[in-house]
Design a protein that fits this description.
The protein has 285 residues and is an alpha+beta fold. The chain is 34% helix and 18% strand. Strands 1, 2, 3, 4, 5, 6, 7 and 8 form an eight-stranded mixed sheet that branches.
Length: 285
C-alpha cells in the first residue's frame, strides 16, 4: 500500500557483407629538388603564424562559451532549479524505477515507491547535518523525499532530491561523487511509511547509503537503504565501501550498497532527462 502526501500544485507545461580489403600498392614518387633555405624559413614562419591564429580562435571560442573563464552552463541547468514545483511528483520520483546492471554483478534492479513526503524546507529533519551545512550557503531551496522497496519487498530505500540555487562553479565544488566521502558518517535520514513495508524504517535500520552532487544540475541526490523486516544495523556504510571485494557482512551480501548507489544514479539520470526536455520545450515556444 502506498502512502502519498500531495506536493504543492504543479503546473504541467503545454507541450506543445564485409568488403575485401584492397591490395596495397606503392608508387615511387618523383625526386624532389633540395629546398632553398629562404623558402624553408618562409614556410616555417607561416606555420607558426597559422598555429597561433588557430590557437587564438579556439581560445576565443572557449572563452565565449564559458563566459570569460567561467564554465558554460549545461543544458537544462536553469530549468532544473524550478523542477521541484514545476514538474509532477511522478516525474521526479516515479512510482517505479528500473536500473539495468545495478548489481551485484550484471543483475537488474526494480524499485516501487511506497511513500512520498511533501516537499520540505532544508532542515535537519530532511537532510543530514553536514550536507545541510554544505548546501545551505548555496541557497538550498527544497527537499523531495520518497521511500521505495525492491521487487522482493525485502529492502527499503529512502531517496532525496535536494534542489539548490547554486551556479555551476559552486555546484561542482561540492565534489560530485566524492561528496559521500566528505560527509563521513553523516547518513541521510530514513523516511518511514506507516502501513507499508517501510513502516519500521528508522535511524537504527539504515545500512547502505550514498550521496552525490550532480555536476550538470543544481541538485544533490541522496539514498539510504535498509532491510524491510526492521532489523537494526551496527552502522550505515557508504555504498562504495559496501561494494568492495572481499566484504562478507550482511550489507555486502544483501547488495544494499548496490541498491543505494543504483537508485541514486537512476534518479539523477531521470532528473537530467526531465530538465533537458523542459529546456527544449521552453526554447520551442
Amino acid at each position: 500500500m502506498e502512502t502519498t502526501a500531495r506536493l504543492r500544485p504543479v503546473q504541467v507545461p503545454a507541450y506543445g557483407t564485409a568488403e575485401e580489403t584492397p591490395v596495397e600498392t606503392t608508387t615511387r614518387l618523383r625526386p624532389i629538388r633540395e629546398r632553398r633555405r629562404g623558402r624553408a624559413l618562409a614556410v616555417g614562419a607561416c606555420l607558426v603564424l597559422g598555429t597561433g591564429l588557430v590557437g587564438g580562435a579556439l581560445v576565443g571560442v572557449w572563452l565565449a562559451a564559458s563566459g570569460g573563464g567561467r564554465p558554460a552552463e549545461p543544458a537544462g541547468y536553469t530549468v532544473a532549479k524550478e523542477l521541484w514545483h514545476n514538474a509532477p511528483v511522478d516525474t521526479l520520483l516515479p512510482r517505479t524505477l528500473t536500473a539495468p546492471e545495478a548489481g551485484p554483478g550484471p543483475s537488474a534492479r526494480t524499485w516501487t515507491r511506497v511513500v512520498v513526503a511533501p516537499d520540505a524546507p532544508c532542515t535537519t529533519a530532511s537532510l543530514a547535518p553536514r550536507l545541510l551545512a554544505a548546501v545551505d550557503p548555496l541557497g538550498c531551496e527544497r527537499v523531495l523525499r520518497a521511500t521505495y522497496t525492491d521487487a522482493t519487498a525485502t529492502s527499503v530505500l529512502t531517496v532525496g532530491l535536494v534542489f539548490t540555487r547554486a551556479d555551476v562553479t559552486a555546484q561542482r565544488a561540492l565534489g560530485g561523487r566524492a561528496l559521500a566521502a566528505r560527509l563521513g558518517q553523516d547518513v541521510p535520514p530514513a523516511l518511514a511509511g506507516p502501513g507499508t513495508v517501510a513502516a519500521g524504517f528508522g535511524p537504527a535500520q539504515r545500512t547502505g547509503w550514498w550521496a552525490t552532487a550532480s555536476t550538470d544540475l543544481p541538485v544533490v541526490v541522496t539514498a539510504v537503504s535498509g532491510f524491510a523486516d526492521g532489523r537494526a544495523a551496527d552502522r550505515a556504510v557508504p555504498a562504495d565501501q559496501a561494494m568492495k571485494k572481499g566484504r562478507a557482512d550482511a550489507v555486502a551480501q544483501s547488495g544494499l550498497g548496490h541498491e543505494a548507489l543504483g537508485i541514486a544514479e537512476r534518479l539523477e539520470k531521470q532528473l537530467r532527462t526531465t530538465a533537458r526536455t523542459a529546456a527544449k520545450e521552453q526554447e520551442a515556444r
